[in-house]
Amino acid sequence: QVQLVESGGGLVQAGGSLRLSCAASGRTFSSYAMGWFRQAPGKEREFVAAISRIFMTYYADSVKGRFTISRDNAKSTVYLQMNSLKPEDTAIYYCATSGGINLRLHDAYDYWGQGTQVTVSS
After folding, report:
1. Are 58 and 50 in contact (CB under 8 A)?
2. What pLDDT was estimated at residue 54?
3. Does residue 101 register a pLDDT over 90?
């Protein structure tokens, strides 16, 4: 049974930083790509960042230069370092695992975590 557990969300002021973590279990972590998506109230879930098995990274334009995705295969954990946070970054952040190709697409991912709330105050 694949499980993904996110942590690290919280309330932060605009301009601040948070680091999200997602611990995975139930499959060979290093064999799969990992991604972060987010969903704000009343909006669709959107792609944030992804990292492939060979550590190639991909970012949404809205977070490029502010967010950094990384992975630690020894710990089966993926991270999302979020700097210079803005109120529009407020959302529930989900991690997911993918054996697919186009990591920007929601459908490329087969397992999802429960999400962690990030709230950025102005």
Report:
1. yes
2. 95
3. no
